[in-house]
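Sequence only, no structure available. Ideas?
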Amino acid sequence: MPSNTEVIESFYADPANLLNLVDADVEWITMPGIPYGGVHRGPDQVRQNVMRHVAADWENFKSTLDTLMEAGDDCIVALGRYSGTFKATGKTLADCDFAHIFRLRNGRIVQLRQYVDSAIFNAVMS
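Reply:
I predicted one. Tokens follow.
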């Protein structure tokens, strides 16, 4: 079984593989105050309420990983930057810092908590 760090590294290396890495009971918590924000439970809600919109609304959206830190037996903290162009406005999101806190169990992601500056996202999206 891959280590927790390897699981999270594989997510950033290939975000399309996300749904193969999450637990059936995953809790995906995105920042309130931005579109797609809220608590999404299960792979179907993550796909429908977050990933589908990101794919449809953004051009070249990327989550670039800068640092991974282990924070206990089941927790990984990822620091990085979002970038991409919001299609509806043509505005570019460049180097918007994020923090993701992942909880894992048996090599599967059971929770993600996202922290990002919602004002930066909203400025690009309006």
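Residues 4-125 form a domain with the Nuclear Transport Factor 2; Chain: A, fold (CATH 3.10.450.50).
Hope that gets you unstuck.
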